[in-house]
Amino acid sequence: MNSWQASGYALALAFSGMTALAFAMDRHHAQLTGEQEIARGRSRLLRLLGSLLLAAAVLPSVGGWGATVGVVAWLGWISAGALVAVLWIAAAPRWAARAAAAAAPLALLGCWWWA
Predict the structure, then answer these.
(1) Residue 73 confidence (pLDDT) above 70
(2) What is the 3-state secondary structure (H, E, C) of the chain?
(3) Alpha carbon 19 to its chain's center
(4) Chain mean position to CA 10
(5) Cα 44 from chain centroid?
(6) pTM over 0.90
(7) What confidence tens digit (pLDDT) does each residue in 1-56 have?
(8) What are the boundaries of each domain within the chain?
């Protein structure tokens, strides 16, 4: 896997993870669904999914740059993913949720394919 592919996969996973973490909060969940409160089980599931996606974003980073630079790149991609998630959720929360739901499995499949 080259560094361009690793960058795309890491950004997609970081964006998806940050979006899941954002929609686990009452405010952003209300933007998405119109409900004022999120169910406790759904909130926990979204937090777990977001955490796992952020952790999975380290795989393409380390695969593309090695362990030392990959961890630093991973932290950068998490920051970039958070920025993209914030901007997209503010502009169009439903489209952000759809994009995150599509990006995560595609990025995981791409990481698996190139491993």
Answers:
(1) yes
(2) CCHHHHHHHHHHHHHHHHHHHHHCCHHHHHHHHCCCCCCHHHHHHHHHHHHHHHHHCHHHHHHHHCHHHHHHHHHHHHHHHHHHHHHHHHHCHHHHHHHHHHHHHHHHHHHHHHC
(3) 6
(4) 8
(5) 16
(6) yes
(7) 788 999 999 999 999 999 999 999 999 999 989 898 999 999 999 999 999 999 99
(8) 3-114
